[in-house]
Structure formats: structure tokens, C-alpha cells
Amino acid sequence: MWFVFAFATAVIVSFREVFFKGKLRDPEESGYSLIWGSSSVATILLLPVIIFLGFPEIKQEFIIFLIIGGILSVVTATTATRALKKSDISLVAPMSTFTPLFLLGISPLITGEFPNAFGFFGVLLITFGSYVLNIEMRHEHWTAPFKALLKNEGPRLMLFVAFVWSITSSIDKIGVKASYPLFWVFALNMATAVFLLPFVYKKINKQYFIKNFKTISIMGSFTAVAISLQMVAISMTLVAYVIAIKRLGVVMTVFMGGLIFKEKGLKERLLGSAIMVAGVIFIAILG
Q1: Residue 188: what pLDDT?
Q2: What's the alpha-carbon Rg for the chain, to the nearest Å?
């Protein structure tokens, strides 16, 4: 059953990203209303569950890491939104697979743990997959596909987000241990909504927000359901297995980017993203 819940998470997250990208094509949409509204609605939807499960004892450690996690959540959410607004979703989405690669680099420094041969092979697959994303440019120079990723603002911004996610994964673990999974998700969404308020006040067109409240509510529902399914899956098996299956959503997102938004180079981007997801599986399950 854990696979079913993890795969359902991948599908919902993929649809959420495509839905998000579709709204960002509206010149009136800055993205702040979607992020804030999504976090707020997710908080409201999760509140009855938290009341039913009960509130844990809140300690100082929890509050400190909630503040750090909330700030970083705002940074990653706004940066990822800008990345989606600037570039094709089929180029931006695969960059999330770099998170486990960054973790492999961070883990030896923090814990002294080094990856095995499967982990290194996973790194090679992610790197090669990122090359395949722009492989049609190899005739210019063999390094051109890599340079294209770095020159393109969307993928470059998403690489930064993937790096920050490799750090926040540790914060999430601490937050979950200091409370319990769904409460941490509830608290983090609430903190994100609160910290976004200053940006929301300046950036959001209130009439536009009211007009699109239904759409924003759908985004929040996607967020709440996806996170809940992910937590149920994690309770049944190893976190690494769940995240590896969740990353299958990258391939779905790339496919829908070509199908819905008519983005170019679909074959190369599908192949590249599939290779990158295979790398994630090698790192997460075998590495």
C-alpha cells in the first residue's frame, strides 16, 4: 500500500505544478497569491485533523526550527515560482532531482557518511540526464547542454531551490521528531502563510485574489492531500523509498508540459528526466 500512496502523491504533485504553471501564464498573477493562498488553505484543511490527533507539547527547539523552516519555505516557494514563470516546466521540474545529489555532498561533511557504488552511479545518471535535457545543442559544443541549463534562469533558480531542499530535509526531520509528521506539516504551512503576509500585502491585487479564490483553494487542497498521502506512505516504509517514488512525478510533469503547454524538445526532456529519476532511485534505495 505504501507504493500506492507514494505514487498518488507523485501524481497529485505533478498536477499541482502544471496547474500552477498554467496560472502563472496570466500576466496579472505574480505567484504570491497562489503560494500564500495554497499554504493558508492547506493549514485550514489540516486543522480538523490536528484537533482530532491532538496538539503535541511545544518546546523551544520546535519553535526555533519552525521559524527557520518557515523562512526557508518562503524562499524556496517564491524562487520556484519565479523559475516556473521564467522557463518551461519541462526544464524546471527535473532540477528537483538534484536534491539527493546535493545531499550526497553534504552528508560526508556533516555525518561522515559516504555513498557506495550505487550512490555514485546515481550521481552519474542525474548528471547525464541533465545533459540529455538539452542534448540537441551538443552540435555547438559538447558542453553546450550543461551551459544552456546554467544560462536559462528557470533551471538555474530551481537548482538553488533543490540545494536548499537538501538542507530543509534535515530541518523537517527535527521538526517531525519534536512533534509528529502531520503536525509539522500543519505548522510549517501556517508559518509559511504568516511569513508571506508582508509580501502578500504589497504584491497581491485583492480583487484578483477574490476572483481567483476558487483556483487558489484547489491549490491548497492539492497541497494538503499530497502531504497527507506522503506522510501515510512514510509511516509504512522508509522515507527514501517514498521520496524516490514521488520523484516519478517529474516525468509526468515534463510530459504534461509538452502536451498542455506545447513546450519544445519533449522527447529529449522526457528521456533526460527519466534518466534523472532513475539516478534518484539508485541513490535513495540502493545508494
Answers
A1: 93
A2: 19
Which pLDDT score is estimated for 287? Answer: 61
Rounded Cα–Cα distance for residues 216 and 44 (Å): 13
Grid-cell match 504570491, residue found: 32
Q: Look at residue 78 in the predicted model and tell me its pLDDT.
A: 92
* Contacts of residue 255, Cβ cutoff 8 Å, sequence gap at least 6: 266, 270
Query: Where are the alpha helices (H) located in 54-143, listed in sequence order?
Result: 60-86, 89-92, 98-110, 117-132
**H/E segment holding residue 119:** helix 117-132
Q: How far apart are CA 193 and CA 37, in angstroms?
A: 8
Phi, then psi, of 263 in degrees rounded to 5:
-70, 145
CA distance 88 to 82: 11
Rounded Cα gap, residues 61 and 63, in angstroms:
6
- Following DSSP, what letter does each residue of 120-136 receive, concatenated? HHHHHHHHHHHHHTTGG
Q: Which of 79, 49, 45, 10 is nearest to 255 (CA)?
A: 10
Q: For position 191, what pLDDT does the model report? A: 96
Which residue from 163, 172, 158 is spatially nearest to 227, judged by alpha carbons? Answer: 172
Task: Phi first, then psi: give them for residue 197, nearest 5 degrees.
Answer: -50, -45
Residue 27's pLDDT is 77
User: For the chain, which residues score pLDDT lower than 50?
Assistant: none
Element (H, E) at 179: none
User: What is the rounded end-to-end Cα distance, in angstroms, of the chain?
Assistant: 23
